[in-house]
């Protein structure tokens, strides 16, 4: 019998050996590392004691793992239908039930670790994590798709500040900057997949706006975050601060100009991406530099 056209089905042994790797890849390791690193660095820069910033980092890590696993487990059927090769659950590298189990376990650990930082800190962080779960389960396909990102990133300065001795309230500008960076992260994350998402019936805010409008809009929250970080703290910006603000704003405006065309290609696409990444990196650096002032 000719079996050349039969789909390859991994053996039970192969599936078992590949499950740990599939589970690790299905958590969205890039965003997990980036967000955990940002929150941990912010906790360190805020002056947290050694044990406290480790606890903050562990709480954020558990929360991000739960969000990533929830996303892949919930979207497994749609990802399989779209034949997305980068999705381990969709291609059968790890079972959907296994990933759901990991997601809920990480969510439980996140709650324990978050509230170990303090009641207010735990409540603030869990609000952000629950918002991210709401994005995965429902809000991704609505005009409010940006809101969980704003809440989630805005909750990170809250977690850091409220975990400090005395549980001080976070500075408004730190929360606002985090929320704006979250909106930018949402736009940048969704932008490459807008057309594919539309074919799959996903109609979040970026999908409704379309790729061209999202490319033009993306620099706006980055410029706004820069302005908040430089002008929000009580100390008046000096000449160097003004220069940084102007430089970052120019990078973002340049990115918006390059991205304004319907389909930027080649070196122009890379230039637009570089300008946007430069603006985002400068904003993160400014946030970390202001770490001691967030509470």
From TrEMBL:
Subcellular location: Membrane
Pfam families (alphabetical): UbiA
Membrane topology: Multi-pass membrane protein
InterPro entries tied to this protein: UbiA_prenyltransferase (IPR000537), UbiA_sf (IPR044878)
Keywords tagged on the record: Membrane, Transmembrane, Transmembrane helix
Location, primary (coarse class): membrane
Transmembrane segments: 106-134, 146-165, 171-192, 243-261
Protein name: UbiA family prenyltransferase
């Amino acid at each position: 019998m000719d079996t050349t056209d039969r789909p390859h089905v991994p053996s039970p042994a192969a599936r078992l050996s590949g499950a740990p790797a599939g589970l690790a890849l299905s958590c969205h390791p890039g965003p997990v590392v980036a967000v955990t690193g940002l929150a941990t660095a912010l906790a360190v820069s805020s002056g947290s004691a050694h044990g406290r910033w480790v606890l903050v980092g562990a709480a954020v890590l558990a929360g991000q793992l739960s969000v990533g696993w929830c996303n892949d487990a919930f979207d497994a059927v749609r990802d399989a239908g779209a034949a997305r090769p980068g999705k381990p659950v969709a291609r059968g590298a790890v079972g959907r039930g296994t990933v759901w189990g990991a997601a809920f376990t990480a969510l439980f650990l996140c709650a324990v670790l978050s509230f170990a930082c303090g009641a207010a800190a735990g409540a603030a962080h869990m609000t952000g994590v629950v918002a991210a779960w709401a994005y995965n389960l429902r809000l991704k396909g609505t005009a409010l798709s940006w809101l969980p990102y704003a809440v989630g990133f805005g909750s990170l300065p809250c977690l850091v500040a409220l975990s400090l001795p005395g549980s001080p309230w976070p500075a408004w500008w730190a929360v606002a900057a985090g929320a704006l960076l979250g909106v930018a992260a949402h736009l940048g994350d969704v932008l490459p997949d807008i057309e594919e998402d539309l074919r799959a019936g996903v109609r979040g805010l970026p999908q409704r706006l379309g790729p061209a409008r999202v490319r033009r809009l993306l620099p706006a929250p980055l410029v706004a975050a820069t302005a908040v970080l430089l002008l929000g703290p009580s100390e008046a910006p000096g000449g160097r601060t003004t220069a940084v603000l102007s430089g970052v704003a120019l990078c973002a405006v340049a990115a918006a100009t390059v991205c304004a065309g319907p389909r930027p290609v080649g070196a122009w696409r890379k230039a637009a991406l570089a300008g946007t990444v430069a603006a985002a990196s400068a904003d993160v650096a400014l946030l970390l530099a202001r770490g001691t002032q967030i509470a």
